[in-house]
């Protein structure tokens, strides 16, 4: 699968490497342009390519959005139309400024902003160091660390679940985008190293 990553911070870098190692064709971008990412792309290896944000979104059959939430207006929305978009963001008012979510979860707000994109919340409740080190595809699914996902689109959830399994974790369905509030910072499951069963118990699923 062609995967475009918007944002080259710790989570973006970790996912680029892991997904490229799993055999996917990965492009990575940041706000400063591809020339600033060529060395990073070379270090990540496995054919990871540096793009502009617009070109990464155009390239990807699936897009991973890892930019700070406060910059959501900078996303290349036209190139994301109709595509599965994994939203890894968390809203931190002290970093992002005051944003009126209109009572929505961060991901439901993002989905409304992106229009026809098929948004799936994932990878927001795990530290990048754990993402880098804790995946193990040799383990049975019930022994792997859980990655929580939430979406209003069942087919998109299934696609993202497959990617999660490919990099050595297991997906736990946390419901729709409004339910993604239950995996945000400050919730009991946030940052927890839990199996799927343990995660479901914490979430009351």
TrEMBL record:
MF terms (GO), sorted A to Z: oxidoreductase activity
Pyrroline-5-carboxylate reductase catalytic N-terminal domain boundaries: 2-91
Superkingdom, natural source: Bacteria
Keyword Cell membrane applies: no
Swiss-Prot/TrEMBL keywords: Oxidoreductase
Pfam families for the chain: F420_oxidored
InterPro entries, sorted: NAD(P)-bd_dom_sf, P5C_Rdtase_cat_N, STEAP_metalloreductase
UniProt-recorded name of the protein: Dinucleotide-binding enzyme
Organism (species): Deinococcus marmoris
């Amino acid at each position: 699968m062609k995967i475009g990553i918007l944002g080259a911070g710790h989570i973006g870098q970790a996912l680029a490497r892991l997904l490229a190692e799993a055999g996917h064709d990965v492009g990575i971008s940041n706000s400063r342009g591809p020339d600033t990412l060529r060395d990073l792309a070379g270090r990540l290896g496995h054919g990871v390519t540096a793009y502009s944000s617009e070109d990464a979104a155009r390239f990807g059959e699936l897009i991973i959005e890892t930019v700070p939430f406060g910059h959501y207006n900078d996303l290349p929305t036209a190139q994301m139309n109709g595509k599965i978009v994994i939203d890894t963001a968390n809203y931190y008012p002290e970093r992002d400024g005051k944003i009126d979510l209109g009572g929505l979860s961060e991901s439901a707000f993002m989905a409304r902003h992106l229009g026809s994109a098929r948004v799936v919340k994932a990878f927001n409740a795990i530290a990048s160091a754990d993402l880098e080190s804790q995946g193990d595809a040799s383990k049975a699914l019930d022994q792997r660390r859980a990655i929580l996902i939430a979406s209003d689109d069942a087919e998109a959830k299934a696609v993202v679940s497959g990617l999660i399994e490919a990099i050595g974790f297991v997906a736990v369905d946390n419901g729709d985008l409004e339910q993604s509030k239950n995996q945000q910072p400050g919730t009991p499951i946030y940052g927890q190293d839990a199996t799927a069963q343990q995660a479901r118990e914490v979430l009351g699923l």
